[in-house]
Specification:
The complex is a heterodimer. Chain A has twelve helices and no strands. By secondary structure, chain A is mainly α. The longest helix of chain A is centred in the middle third of the chain and has 31 residues, at 91-121. Chain B is an alpha/beta fold. The relative contact order of chain B is 0.14. Classes of the chains: A mainly alpha, B alpha/beta.
Chain lengths: 269, 304
């Protein structure tokens, strides 16, 4: 327990000490939120209905997809995990603790957004705060797991940027954050079903804001949670202590299994 | 007494390249054992397999009776390792590192070691702010903080200044006195000669020599170097050969003799100087160093 506490405290501080992590955890998402709240809601008052969940998702994706994987890859390549291994730090701690601290930072940013969206920017307030909090937690944990998986399968920091952007950019455009899902053509909507953001937005809208949704919000929440669990299981399974060690525990292509819950979501949500 | 480290017919292969081929050696309890060899000899591969970081491709490895590839978790509290590339997160402070690793070893943080290794003023400094020498000292402090029975040190003095090196050697001697066994991989022959009880010389993945530094130097060509400097340089004009001398050279102001039998050689040289009314300024009698023996072995491709 002392080891966990020390490790958690160290990783949490890293999220503030490291300028990239600080940018991704707070400066970028909160700055983007302030800009979108001030401008977008005035241009398109309908955006106020999704301001809080959409900006929470931006905060979550920025910290977990853009901020979390890079340090994981850098640490592996610098031989830090080797030091950890010979000193008895378990692989699960190396993956789970940075993920949990990133989730913690994302939750702080999310709380700021949730509490200020309505009073400052006339955004819609959640109808069900408990469900809103639960979904925020599920969303951050799921994206944290995806971030860990990206860190594990990337063979360099450049790859993490590629994989992260492959999820981040389509999510922003097609995940129901910037424009409603029902405005998208049917073919594009199917593609949206491969993005975890879509399920997060559908779950938030249906369960926390009591809005009508295209996908079943309960199934959407389950798909999101399932994707997170699958991503974390794959990250643990594919984890490598050392980039120079050719003994891989599994082929990185196995990471594609993370799409299984999302494909099931397209079929059943 | 059971060996602390037992390596039997160990092999390590990377693709088509055999890094270590069928080597065997043992480290006895309480001794400092040196693993010597040029770059690419297989030292680090051997250590990494012993540490459980890599898996061996043949033979058997035992540390304190435990197979590191099968039960690496059991070894964590029993061994301390200072890696050649000691990776710590760049933004981790010295104090945090001590707290972090001691917590995983389930011992109280050893801040005294931070002071002992002259890092007291750097307690709040982040790892990337430390000099190479300070990083190495921190790695050593972390390796011994949990009082392991065996310490594995991979090039511990690389990048250290003379003072730090001497203090690190002092600490190694203290560990030895406390009964800790040390497996030391080094390029530094002077360090190996001074610090180790026994050494194994690795060359192209094979052990080509083992023994105490004294035994190894004695089994070489066996020549003792007698260097003499006189006031009038009479030895520089000397044509005749002194007893026991097989080779003589002039280097700067010294006449240097390589002798199989240094006693008669020195007596004859001193008598000669006296006969020529010359005066002795400096006389040095040096047995071959481990470095010279090491170079002899490596230049002969491992043939002794």
């Amino acid at each position: 327990m002392i080891a966990f506490r020390n490790h958690f405290a160290y990783e949490f501080k890293t999220g503030l000490r490291n300028s990239t992590s600080l940018l991704m955890n707070y400066l970028f998402p909160l700055g983007f939120y302030a800009m979108m709240g001030a401008v977008m809601v005035k241009i398109n008052p309908g955006f106020g209905a999704v301001l809080a969940p959409a900006m929470i998702l931006v905060a979550v994706m920025a910290s977990t997809l853009l901020g979390q994987p890079g340090p994981l890859v850098e640490a592996r390549d610098a031989g830090i995990f080797r030091s950890f291994k010979i000193n008895g730090v378990p692989a699960i701690s190396i993956l789970a603790i940075p993920m949990l601290t990133t989730v913690f930072h994302a939750l702080i940013a999310s709380t700021i957004i949730a509490l200020t969206a309505a009073p400052i920017f006339d955004g819609a307030a959640p109808q069900n705060w408990a469900m809103f909090a639960l979904l925020t937690l599920v969303t951050t944990l799921s994206f944290g797991s995806i971030g860990a998986l990206i860190g594990v399968i990337s063979n360099g920091v450049r790859s993490t940027v590629l994989w992260s952007q492959l999820i981040f950019l389509p999510s922003m455009l097609l995940g129901g954050m910037m424009m409603p899902l029902d405005m998208l053509p049917e073919s594009v909507r199917s593609f949206s079903g491969l993005l975890p953001t879509t399920y997060a937005m559908q779950a938030f809208s249906g369960l926390a804001f009591n809005q009508t949704t295209i996908f079943n919000p309960v199934v959407s929440a389950l798909v999101l949670a399932g994707t997170g669990l699958m991503a974390f299981a794959l990250a643990v399974n594919l984890f490598n202590w050392d980039s120079k060690n050719s003994t891989h525990r599994g082929h990185p292509a196995m990471a594609a299994l993370v799409f299984v819950p999302l494909i099931l979501g397209i079929l059943f949500a | 007494m059971e060996a602390v480290v037992s390596v039997k017919n160990f092999r390590k292969v990377y693709g088509d390249f055999t890094a270590v081929n069928d080597i065997s050696f043992e480290v006895e309890p309480g001794e400092i054992f040196g693993l010597l060899g040029p770059n690419g000899a297989g030292k680090t591969s051997t250590l990494e397999c012993l540490e459980g970081i890599r898996r061996p491709d043949g033979g058997s490895l035992q540390l304190l009776g435990i197979d590191p590839s099968r039960e690496p978790g059991k070894l964590n509290s029993l061994i301390g390792v200072q890696l050649q590339t000691s990776g710590l997160p760049g933004n981790m402070t010295v104090e945090e590192a001590m707290r972090f690793f001691c917590a995983y070893h389930r011992v109280e943080p050893r801040y005294d070691l931070i002071d002992r290794l002259e890092l007291g003023e750097k307690r709040k400094s982040q790892y990337h702010q430390l000099s190479t020498g300070q990083q190495r000292r921190l790695a050593l402090a972390l390796a011994i903080a949990h009082q392991p029975q065996l310490v594995i040190l991979d090039e511990p003095t690389a990048g250290l200044d003379v003072g730090s090196r001497a203090r690190l050697h002092e600490l190694m001697q203290e560990l030895k006195s406390a009964g800790t066994s040390i497996l030391l991989a080094t390029h530094d022959m002077a360090e190996a000669e001074k610090m180790t009880d026994r050494v194994a010389i690795l060359l192209r993945g094979q052990v080509v020599a083992t023994g105490t530094p004294r035994e190894l130097t004695a089994t070489g060509s066996g020549y003792t170097k007698v260097s003499v400097r006189t006031e009038n340089d009479m030895l520089h004009h000397n044509g005749h050969i002194f007893p026991g001398v097989s080779q003589q050279i002039l280097k700067e102001e010294y006449a240097i003799y390589f002798s199989k039998d240094p006693g008669p050689t020195v007596s004859a040289v001193l008598a000669y100087i006296q006969n020529k009314n010359d005066h002795l300024i400096d006389l040095r009698v040096e047995r071959p160093s481990l470095e010279e023996r090491f170079l002899e072995i490596t230049e002969n491709g491992g043939a002794q």
